[in-house]
Design a protein that fits this description.
The structure is a single chain. Helix 3 packs across helix 4 and helix 3 packs antiparallel against helix 10. The two termini are 25 Å apart. The protein has 13 helices and no strands. The protein has 253 residues and is mainly α.
């Protein structure tokens, strides 16, 4: 489970922090007529957005920090990741070059609060080696890569799976790609939109094939699903207070 954030454009630079959910997104969706299942997905989005509002997630200061956070947040809470990242910053090694050259035992000790710190050290080092060898340690250079080619390359890095790769690209690189996680799967299954044997890729295609291709929409929509899953659609659901309670669970696929 990844804990998601937003990291967006400001001015002409794609790496300035701002909210992704803008008036442009609202205007784009207003009055939009779509065929099923897009209409149902849009209804879910609008109900959640009315309830939660603009979520402004992921407090990353740089694309590199977002990538590190995406790796560290595997199987832990974001609170623990924040502590680990703060320790890396305090040691002044939260840059591609510094972290690449830091000794493994030092990195492991600094990220200990994130759990599985030896495994995550190896995963960070694998990503850093990839960034060093392929893009001369440049996150900007990495994000110039075509989306699906970059995704394929990231998935070849030890410890980076689909959710982590897509999070790095969407939140760090402003790429048009939808992130799927356990909350997404749980909500969509309970609303009978997908079946329990659907793959990550099939769920991702459901969103990307049936919604407008828009980074702001993908960011906000995923954050809304995460919050709905955390607060209402839990393992023991609180359906009574859920903003999606009025939706019938009719199968649409």
């Amino acid at each position: 489970m990844l804990h998601k954030s937003f990291f967006g454009r400001g001015g002409n630079c794609p790496f300035h922090h701002k909210s992704f959910h803008t008036e442009k997104t609202d205007n784009m969706l207003h009055g939009l007529k779509m065929a099923e299942p897009g209409e149902r997905l849009l209804t879910i989005y609008q109900k959640l957005n009315d309830h939660f509002g603009d979520l402004k997630w992921w407090p990353g200061e740089t694309p590199f920090e977002i990538a590190v956070g995406a790796i560290l947040t595997q199987n832990t809470s974001w609170k623990n990741v924040e502590i680990a990242i703060a320790r890396l910053k305090a040691f002044n090694i939260l840059t591609p070059e510094s972290l690449f050259h830091a000794k493994d035992e030092i990195v492991a000790e600094l990220i200990r609060p994130s759990g599985y710190y030896n495994i995550k050290t190896r995963r960070l080092k694998s990503f850093l080696a990839f960034l060093h060898d392929e893009y001369n340690e440049s996150m900007e250079g990495m994000f110039k890569e075509e989306t699906w080619l970059l995704r394929k390359k990231l998935l070849g890095v030890n410890g980076i799976g689909e959710e982590t790769a897509d999070s790095i690209m969407l939140y760090g690189g402003y790429k048009e790609i939808f992130v799927v996680d356990a909350y997404t799967r749980r909500i969509m299954e309970r609303k009978k939109i997908i079946e329990d044997d659907w793959s990550y890729g099939k769920i991702q295609r459901l969103f990307m094939d049936n919604l407008p291709k828009d980074v702001e929409l993908y960011n906000q929509y995923h954050a809304l699903l995460v919050n709905a899953g955390k607060h209402y659609c839990k393992k023991r659901p609180d359906c009574r207070h859920c903003p999606l309670r009025s939706l019938e669970s009719n199968e649409i696929v």
